[in-house]
Amino acid sequence: xxxxxxxxxxxxxxxxxxxxxxxxxxxxxxxxxxxxxxxxxxxxxxxxxxxxxxxxxxxxxxxxxxxxxxxxxxxxxxxxxxxxxxxxxxxxxxxxxxxxxxxxxxxxxxxxxxxxxxxxxxxxxxxxxxxxxxxxxxxxxxxxxxxxxxxxxxxxxxxxxxxxxxxxx
Length: 169
Prior knowledge:
Structural class: alpha/beta
Largest sheet: 3 strands, parallel
Number of helices: 5
Order of helices and strands: HEEHEHEHEH
Low-confidence stretches: none
Strand order of the largest sheet: 3-4-5
Radius of gyration: 15 Å
Number of domains: 1
CATH class: Alpha Beta
Number of strands: 5
């Protein structure tokens, strides 16, 4: 998990690991990780039991110097911004550069707009234009709007990133 501080990375991870929303998470100091157990099902293959280490990388600038060593060897990444706060999208190119400099080519990186539950209905058309611009600028194909609070699109993100990670091995 990559992205600026306060965008919801820790809350997202807690949601995928426990299935619950925790409104009182604390700032990640440096790096933290959780273990996620998933069953990947396919129509034409037997289910695969997977154990995934999910690394929560602190988004504050004072922690950036340690992040390359945690990104190296990753099989997939989720780059998060807060869809209700434009300013959090302004540093995404720096995160993509950090990712691309420290991972092998072809490792999936998804763009996630968090806090979908906080966006106003009138913001959606503006947000859709911004998403289109970001995807083109950052050369990222996959984008999801998610809410750790409501659970919107959480399972879709997990299914897609897990499949792409397995396929890229």
